[in-house]
Structure formats: C-alpha cells, structure tokens
C-alpha cells in the first residue's frame, strides 16, 4: 500500500507540474486536463491514506521503482507543446495500464497472501481507472493531421 | 631645467640622483636596492625605479635612484651620476638617463668607453677600476665596490650601508663578509674621485617611515579595506601585487587562488564576492580587456568587486615594462550597455594604499565594481615614504537580515542601494543575474523594469557622498589657472609647478582620485574663478582631457599637455610648459 | 507550484517540492532538463540540505536557467564562466554546497578551458552538464558534442569535427568523481547527483538531456542508454580502459577517486592586517 500511495503522490505531483508547464506554453485545454488529473490522483492518494489510517505518509525513500520512475508518472519526454487532450489522455491511459501491470506482477509474486490480496484489489481499482479514462477518450476528438505544425520558427530568448 | 651640478666645495644638495648600470648578472639591481635601503637607514627619503632588457637573466639593467631630504615621487630632470659595471647595451636606456654638463660618469676602464650618447652631455668622466678593486678582495664583486663608492660620493654613513648589506645578505654569511669588504674597497676608492655630491643632513625623524612599492601598498590597502579573497592571474606589471597578497591574505584569514586566465580570475572574484566576501583581482591593460564582460555582470547583478589595473604601455601587448596612462577609456567606457561603475586613480606610491582601500570600501557600500588605475611606474617603484595616514572606515556592505518577508534583492530604494542577501541566510534565496530583472530579481524583458533598474544603478553612484577624497587639491587657491591631472603625472606636475611658482607662475593643482562617476560639481567648485585649465596626462589621445570636456563645462580656456608613455614627464618639462602656458 | 494538490496528510520532512522555487520553467515540453530539476530537488531532499546553504551557479543557455527554478541561492553568470564563479564562491565560502550547472555549449566550448582546470583544481563542488549535443538557446547550432555529420545552417553537412569527450577529459584532468546520467531516469539521476555531491572534490555528472525542439530524434535516446553500464572504480587506469569501450550512452559512475579535495596550502593565521605593517616599517 505504501507503493500505491507513493505512486499516486508522484503521479499527482507530475500532473500538476505538467499543468503548469502547459499553461506556460498557452495550451490551456491540456493544462486544465492535467490539472484535473492531478486532482483525481490526489483523491486516490488521500483515499489510500484514509483506508490505511495514516496521518503521515510512509517513508517513500525506502524503496526504489524498477522503472526509472513510478508506474503512473508521466515521462517528461512524451510531451509536445501543441499536444491535444487526446494525447494527454492517451498518456494517462498508458500510466493507469502500467499501474495495473505493476499490481498484477505484485499479486503474482511470492509475497504473503494478504499482500497478494491487497495487490489484486489495487489492480482492480487501476483497471477501473483505465476504463474511466477510456470513456473520457471516447468523448475527445482524435487529433487531426498537422496538429503539430507551427508556422512560426523557434524564438530566441538569451 | 635644473641641471645636475656638482656642488661647490662644502655645498650639499637636498636631492641627488644616481644610476647604476650593468649586464650579464652584474647585480646592479641588488646594489641599487642596497643603496636605497642605506639611504633609508640614514634617514633620507628615496625613490628607485629599474629598467632592463628583454632577457630574463643576464640582460642589460639599470637602477635609477633619487635620494632626498624631502619626500620624492618622481625622478629629477637629470642624473648626477651614471655609474656602470659595464657598458653592454646601456645606451638603450639613454632616454631615461638624461645627463648634464655637471654630471659624472663612472666607468671601468677595462670595460671600454661609455656610449657616445652619454658622453655628449659634456659631463665629467672618471675611471673607476671596479673589476680590479673587486679582485683585490677575496670573492669581491664589482657591484658591491660600486655601492661603496656611490655611498661615499653621496655622503651616506658607513653603518647605514653596512646595515643594508646585512639585511640582504644576512642569510648567507659566506657572501656577507666579502661583500662588506668590497664595499669598503669602493668607499676607499672614492677618495680618488675629484667630484662629489654630498647630501644635506637628513630631516629630523617625525612620522614613521615605510619602504615599499606601489604594488605592495595597493595590496595592503586592499586588506585594510576588507578584501579576504583574491583570484590571481599573473601579468606584468601587476604580478608582484598578487604575489605580495598571497601570504599576506593567509595571515589574516583570507585566501588567494591562482586562476587559469583573466576570464577565470575575474569570475572567481565575483563568485567569492557574491558569497559575501570582499574580493579583488589585479591585472594590466590586456587582462582588463578580457575582464570587461564580467565587470558588466557585476554591474548588472550589483556585486561588489575591485580590479586594480596597473597600467602599462598599450595598445595590445605594448611595452609591458613601461608606464602609460592609456586605460582611462576602457576603464570608464569599456563595458557594453550603460554600466556605470567606479573608477579611481592612485597618484603616488603611498597613495596606492589609501586609494585601493577606499575603492574596496566604496565597492562594498555601493555594490558595484571599482577599477583602480595604478601604473607601472607607481606599481614597481620602490620608495621611502612617510607612513600613509589612515582613511576613514567605510559603511560596509548593506546585507539583508534573515527571514524578511517578501524580500526583494533589487528593491528600488531611495539612495539606490538595496540590501544584499548573503548565501547561508535563511528565507532570502535569490538568483543574481546578468539578465535585466524585476525588483525581486526574476528576469524581465519589460522596459519599465529596465528603466527602473538602470536608474537605480546610476542613482546609487551619483547620489553618494564621496567626501574630500575625490581629489588632492593643492597650489595657489587664488590663482586663475589650474592644472588637472591624475596618477603618476601628479609628482612631476607638482614639482614643476613649484619651480614655476618661484618664477611667479601661479596655478591650482587638482589631482583627481575619483574619475568615475566624475565628481563634476566638486571639480567645478574647485575651479571657481579659473580662466585657464591645463589637463596633463600620459597618453596619445588626451583621454582625460576629452573625458572632462564631455562630462562637464570646464571654465575658461582648456588646453591639453599629453604625451604617450614609456617615458615619464620630468619636472623641468612641466616647468617649461607652464611658463609658455602662463603667457598664452 | 500553484497546481500542486495539497495533501490531506502532513509531510514528515522537506520533500523535493520544497527545493523548487515558485518560478515556472519555460523549457519546451519534452525537454530533458525537467528531469534534472526533479532529480536535483530529490537529491537535495534526500540529503536534507538546508536550501539557504546551497548555491546553484550557471552560465548561459537553456539549462543555465536552472538556478531560478530552485529554492536555493542562485547565480546566473555569463557564458562559459560558471565553473570560475562557482570555484570562487566555494573557496570563499567553503561552508556552502556549490552545484554548478550548464549545457554542453556553455561547458565544453567557451567554458572548455575552465572545465579542464576545474578538474585539475579539484575544489569540492559538483558540476552537472545537461548535454543535448546542440546549442538550443541560439536555435540549433552544433556544439562540441554534436556528431560530425549533423547538418545545420551554421555548419552545413556537419562540422566534420571529432566530438569532444567530456568524460575522458575529466578523467585525465583530475576530476575526483565522474558519472553519466540520463534525464529520462530522474530517480537514477537523483541517485547519481547525491553520490556526486557527497563525494569529496570535483564531481562531474554528464547528463544526456534530449532537446525536443532542435534534436527531436533524441527521443530515441531512451532506447539507447545502458543503465549501470559503468562499474565505479577508484583505479584511473581501469577507468581509462573502460572509456575505450564507451558507447556515449553508458550510464552510471565511471570513476570515484581518492584525491584529496582542494585546500589552501601553507601557513595560515588570523591576524589583524596592521600586523603586516612591520614588513614596510623602517
């Protein structure tokens, strides 16, 4: 559960950072979308804490992810300043799917039975998240060809 | 022109000038230094400069000394004695060794004839068999013999000479005895010389006296001003300043680090100063050219820093071993953009101390770079001076206290100086930046921020009260003529003016110490009632003259006396020019 | 950061976000440098450094904007001179943790001379170079680490020059700790940075940091990097031999040496300046 908590914290912080980043680049739609995702992950985080009865967070420095970052954390490299909500949701979907995979691996691993049960429960929750994102995606138009075309050349600041 | 005269019998002189020349390891510099110290121990004031060929060792060399009953800060019009161990290429120094009919040339007959250019003066020539005399003493050296002879000609007491020899050679007892013996042989040989130049009795001991170079004085002034970090890159003629400071800093809890080039040294010093430690570097013209970008950074980020520029002949590599006042332009105008900062100039060996100290204090109070213009003549001349008077302490760097909420590093304050957060202080972290910035320090491309910060940085300098140190104002305060000068020109101008005064030519003398921001108000006030202004400086393009005319409305008729470096003005030249100037 | 969703659970100690300032980075979305800010903040949090005792020093370039994004003291100097400024700061204030940051242009081109001498001098500080093999801020010219045949306006058909080898230069010049990281692995990078800061002497971390705008092909780097390809050694010869096999994408700590860090030498004291006057007095 500590893993789950840490995952949600990292994911939420990352979405919040991306919301700022997108707003600096005047991509308001995606910025608001990331902000919403940040709030959702924040709620997940708080739900876990409430379920576990924690008043202070578990020490997140004790363990390391096997991947470069947490399963639900968006890779900085997957962004584009002109990205569409569709892209952002695709990233979110990918994140949630990775979370599912993470917990399923945990559940199949040689761990105590109660941990396996908790992992299966988390996997189920994350699968629900995938489904929800999928529904959201269905409501969002796919990007048109030329979505990443910018007629202006890059600017220079320094 | 004051001609070097051999005084009549029983007459003494209040100032005597001698040259020791020689080559190939003759040791004339060492002998010259000993003569200087002997004069000091005997109670006289003195000044010594040196010239040498381009060889690192074994080249031709000349030590020039002036020994006097009053403080002296420039050479006379002529030398009384030119004494040479040998004549190898000594004529290359002929422009710096003017002789007159009353002068004396001492030479070793075994070394051939003196160069014609010296003989032409019509002076007396006396043979002094230095080599033979040296051989008459076990391990005797000709330069020590020469020292003994000259000391005798000037009437310096034996014990003063012995003391000087012991101080230099005391650590090598094997060399000490032969040297003292050689000195004695030289003193004895002086009896055969028909011409003498005895000094008048030395003045009574009043203020304690020091023996030091301008570079050493500047280094010490920096320490007194609070400098505790120096980044150094060697360059002629500033290297000795840095070398003096290295162990001195270690003694007072500071540090000197040698940098890989001037770009590194200036940026290191700025980094140290950003950390809260008053910092400094020293260089010459070529190094200053490299440093101007970083100085602009210090202006923009409002970081105190002091650079001592020991000016040498330019442009480019120029003549590293000779003096010129050619860096005024780059010191004042060398930064791109509008980057007001401080420029000061020391005007004597002793003044190198006070001016550098003042520069450090001002840089700290005003959070800005200060360039101190010294020059090769002042920096490397060794002088016996009255212990310099102390100057008032500065206000120190205005720093911000921990935890002040909403701290703005570059807040626009009334006098333009905003408190500086020193790293390590909680709650005040900011980023110092060369980019233009808002009051908080964050980069800004807004014109309003740019105007506000430019105004702040200029206003802090122009509204500061610099007090009385802005210049040395001397001479006849009622005179309707005034001379404006700076740096090492001050001494010959002062002496030339004194002679002119005896002829009835009256003038005020203003030696500027603060060059930027130009204290125009005080300058104009000091020129009240003046109808003729003469600007004297040592460069080709009359840099000070143009600068003054651009920055303020000088009264009356303004003319310029300027000449490039490699040769200092003499008091006689100034005197002659003043005579013409006063009639114009 | 205005969008951070406040937690219902109280934080136990300073987290990485406490080491970031409230200034929002203006780097392009997709820029590798975001990973460095993240990693740096994580490392500082892990080491529980006081933000006011850390100074981040930089030169000019996209990556040199980092000081403003951290909550520590910052110094944004002129192009290529960050190592000099950081050296002066650390020697004058040895109590501070000094981290110098910059890009491959700032560090290896105009700053190349200072790089070599900083390695030699071995002052106790950490140098992080975000290498994207291009001059980003000035819109896409080759840098010293750019491949010889990379086409650009300033050097059509490539420079034809052999790439600068920062790890080799650092090794032969005397850097006491040498590592290569990748911004696509902020946690691994945070680990490297922590080890670099903790290691005495001059610690150099070269960080592969893709430039999404001028070198979009660098998105493939995440497939090419080889995590933990270096095994740290204190043996200079072994490290040098290892570099003969370097792919340019080998990650990890190459060298962790034992040279003592720079310290002023010679006798020292804390006298008053006036004690020095005896040297001049007659």
Summarize the topology.
The complex is a heterotrimer of chains A (158), B (584) and C (282).
Chain A: H1 2-24, H2 28-52, H3 85-108, H4 113-138
Chain B: E1 15-22, H1 28-41, E2 45-52, E3 61-68, E4 79-84, E5 99-107, H2 116-119, E6 124-127, H3 130-135, H4 142-154, H5 158-169, H6 173-189, E7 209-213, H7 214-225, E8 229-232, H8 239-251, E9 255-258, H9 262-274, E10 279-283, H10 285-301, E11 305-311, H11 328-333, E12 342-345, H12 351-366, E13 369-375, H13 376-380, E14 382-386, E15 431-433, H14 447-462, E16 471-475, E17 481-485, H15 490-502, E18 508-512, E19 514-516, H16 520-526, E20 532-537, H17 543-551, E21 557-562, H18 571-583
Parallel strand pairs in B: 1-4, 4-5, 5-6, 8-9, 8-10, 10-11, 11-13, 12-13, 17-18, 17-20, 20-21
Antiparallel strand pairs in B: 1-3, 2-3, 2-14, 7-14, 12-19, 16-18
Helix pairs in contact in B: 1-4, 1-5, 4-6, 5-6, 7-8, 7-12, 9-10, 15-18
Chain C: H1 33-46, E1 54-58, H2 66-69, E2 73-76, H3 82-92, E3 97-103, H4 104-108, H5 112-121, E4 125-131, H6 166-173, E5 177-182, H7 186-198, E6 202-208, H8 221-224, H9 236-243, E7 252-256
Describe the structure.
The complex is a heterotrimer of chains A (158), B (584) and C (282). Chain A is mostly helical. Chain A has 4 helices and no strands. The model of chain A has no long low-confidence stretch (mean pLDDT 86). Chain B is α/β, with parallel strands linked by helices and 584 residues long. Chain B folds into 4 domains: 15-192, Pyruvate-ferredoxin oxidoreductase, PFOR, domain III (Pyruvate-ferredoxin Oxidoreductase, domain 3); 210-386, Thiamin diphosphate (ThDP)-binding fold, Pyr/PP domains (Rossmann fold, 3-Layer(aba) Sandwich), CATH 3.40.50; 398-464, no CATH class; 470-583, Rossmann fold, CATH 3.40.50.920. Chain B has helices at 28-41, 116-119, 130-135, 142-154, 158-169, 173-189, 214-225, 239-251, 262-274, 285-301, 328-333, 351-366, 376-380, 447-462, 490-502, 520-526, 543-551, 571-583; strands spanning 15-22, 45-52, 61-68, 79-84, 99-107, 124-127, 209-213, 229-232, 255-258, 279-283, 305-311, 342-345, 369-375, 382-386, 431-433, 471-475, 481-485, 508-512, 514-516, 532-537, 557-562. With 282 residues, chain C is an alpha/beta fold. Chain C is 27% helix and 15% strand. Chain C contains 9 helices and 7 strands, in the order αβαβαβααβαβαβααβ. Chain C has helices spanning 33-46, 66-69, 82-92, 104-108, 112-121, 166-173, 186-198, 221-224, 236-243, and strands spanning 54-58, 73-76, 97-103, 125-131, 177-182, 202-208, 252-256. A 7-stranded mixed sheet of chain C has the order 2-1-3-4-6-5-7, with helices on both faces. In chain C, helix 1 (33-46) crosses helix 7 and helix 6 (166-173) runs antiparallel to helix 9. The longest helix of chain C is centred in the N-terminal third of the chain and has 14 residues, at 33-46. At the B-C interface, strand 7, helix 7, helix 8, helix 9 and helix 10 of B face strand 2, helix 3 and helix 5 of C.
